[in-house]
């Protein structure tokens, strides 16, 4: 999709973006053990597969540290999924990918065939491409199971044209634009057919192309480039109109409109060093908002301001509802503890307290879980299961409340517990 409408991050060839391949959650020390989903019966999970270029990958200038995980539109979309239930993300954004490259890649995925990076697209600088290429058979399985498939592709197809627009006559610019539009339409139509052969029913959201340079930088050429971007939106809409079917929705995510007129704040083109047309964090949030509103009709943020400081209180979202309770979350031994009663009330579980054994018994979802104060094991259907940090009693007013670690919810009750360090929010889904 909307890549940089300039050269692909040329300075990033060596160690660039050695990110987690299948990024799923930005785990923080506060809930280190809580990100794992408990093993057990198969649960209904909303599955997202993101395909495309560096916008899908979540790239920003300077992301050369392997320890730095991207926080782009796809990761935000995963968080939005957590507001609605168990969700997972598989992100296969490849830096520098063009529509022809994604066509080759989806063809290999369709055929469950291992492919080489050069066969996908010659000269790709993304060091993860070798691994992504080898994963094609696995990705086919993931794609077939997806509920939502998002695609950002096309910006790299026109980057050279937009970089060189000043050197072209209007007639040459129009001619080259027409060629790229034809190629874009052909390739995107074909790659979408590859995807549909693998998954005939998932919702597919195809992003259009934003024009990344502000008017102050382009002057009189601003309208010319905006018109060119609008033609790509029309091309995407025509593709969607051709392939969209009842029960197999294919829609255009109108990202370009969200960037129009505010490009300077949503891209890195204005800033220190060389200009870069990738989205800023605000830009990625705008893109995620478009996708989320199309899928769920809303884009949610916690009551505590997103991207808040480490000293801000953490939010807890249970079954899509933010937990509002006077029993404050407690940080102890690097883990977050919640009042057991609050969780039981939120999910509608039954619980009882035994003074003699200082234990709470919880019955939920076919499980009977016994949580004993001070014990590093809990009983799940009679079997001992280890937990890192034991539950404890905490006095709130005149009452002693049982507090247990978030990790115990996953380990004992089989809940799906995920933590977003960016939102400082724990998402709990039974």
TrEMBL record:
It comes from the Bacteria. Residues 317-428 form the Copper amine oxidase-like N-terminal domain. Residues 1-32 form the signal peptide. InterPro entries: Cu_amine_oxidase-like_N, Ester_Hydrolysis_Enzymes, GDSL, Mao_N_sf, SGNH_hydro_sf. Keywords: Signal. This is Lysophospholipase L1-like esterase. The lineage of its organism: Bacteria, Bacillati, Bacillota, Bacilli, Bacillales.
